[in-house]
Design a protein that fits this description.
It holds the Pfam family tRNA_Me_trans_M. Belongs to the MnmA/TRMU family. It catalyses: S-sulfanyl-L-cysteinyl-[protein] + uridine(34) in tRNA + AH2 + ATP = 2-thiouridine(34) in tRNA + L-cysteinyl-[protein] + A + AMP + diphosphate + H(+). It is a single chain. By secondary structure, this protein is α/β, with parallel strands linked by helices. It has three domains: about 1-190, HUPs (Rossmann fold, 3-Layer(aba) Sandwich); about 215-275, Adenine nucleotide alpha hydrolases-like domains (SH3 type barrels, Roll), CATH 2.30.30.280; about 275-355, Translation factors (Elongation Factor Tu (Ef-tu), domain 3, Beta Barrel). It is about 25% helix and about 30% strand. It has a six-stranded antiparallel β-barrel. It has a five-stranded parallel β-sheet with strand order 3-2-1-4-7, with helices on both faces. Strand 10 and strand 11 form a beta hairpin. Helix 1 packs parallel to helix 2. The radius of gyration is 22 Å and the shape is globular.
Length: about 350
Amino acid sequence: MRVLAAMSGGVDSAVAAARMAEAGHEVVGVHLALSRNPQSYRSGARGCCTLEDSRDARRAADVIGIPFYIWDLAERFHEDVVQNFVDEYAAGRTPNPCLRCNEKVKFSAVLDRALALDFDAVVTGHYAQIVETAAGRELHRAVDHDKDQSYVLGVLTQEQLARAFFPLGDTPKAEVRAEAERRGLAVADKPDSHDICFVADGNTPDFLSERLGPNPGDIVDSAGVKLGEHEGTHRYTVGQRKGLRIGTPAADGKPRFVLDISPVDRTVTVGSREELAVRRLSASQPRWCGPVPEATISCRAQLRAHGDEVAVTARLDGDKVLVDFDEPADAVAPGQAVVLYDGTRVIGSATIDSVERATQTV
């Protein structure tokens, strides 16, 4: 099989490419140049998309013994990931750029280009598993639960899964590093990237402020009483506790949390932890990793990239997915994805539009 290996310059993608080559596939490595100015993105351990990463990827390809190329996808990445990120925050939502990158860049732009160049599939270093069944391919959680990335892959369709390989899904991360060392890959001890790769210093509020400008407004409680002021709604996300800088303490002395963000009237509403509890959500833009559910289903849901699963009941309502929680869930943020699971299998995902709080009157 002729496969294209997306090589980020890290240890995971390098070992994934090496495994595919060792299995006898014709492998070609490609590094995605995603930054308009690579030096403006992070370097070292703090992110990806740097010149250092492209050089590490090239050196790994040389050790593996496969051809290597660099594809410039900076404009596509800026439009579909970076600008989307800014626009979502401006609208009072909390996006997940990694999920959007997988959907729009790695498994849309890259896979489409790979197929046009007569490759059979794309291989990445994501921690997830693909299981072959009589009905088609299924996406499952990785063996290493701490590194599992099935949440950010929940946007992949059955057609995309049919052309994807995740060779590391059955391997704990520690063993991947040991394997890289045995293979003579210099990235064996390279630290994992974290946070948002296109935020140069890791300061998301300042990154957004540079692009959205000042947008001051009021911080109010759930009764509408003004408690303080803020410098922009984009500096907040639902469930946030730290950095509120409210001068007036709560009557009960307990911390306050962000309940709602309204960029139209530039208001941030805060309240107690109890007021955060959500009993239902409505989500749109569903993406199914397999057959579309035909009826109401009892399943599990993950609401954040590193969040725990919760028990839910989900059903389709036209182009919407309605999710009811068995027990109220905290800090459910519009803009994030709700990913549904049947055991370890990913059913699909959708983007959260609105929530119904447990304290609301029916």
